[in-house]
Amino acid sequence: MRVATLNLWARHGSWSERREVLIAGLRDLCPDLIAFQESVVTDDYDQVADLLGPGYHVVHQEQGEADGTRASIASRWPLGEIRQRRLAVTTRVNLSEFAGWIGLAEVLAPEPLLFVNHKPSFRLAHEHERELQAVHATRLIEEVLGERGLHVVVAGDFDAPPEAASVRFWSGLQSLRGTSVAYRDVWQWTHPHDPGHTFTPVNPLVKNGNWPLEAGRRIDYLFVRCHGNGPTLRPENCRQIFDRPVNGIWASDHFGLVADLEAAR
Question: Which pTM was predicted?
Answer without folding.
Answer: 0.96
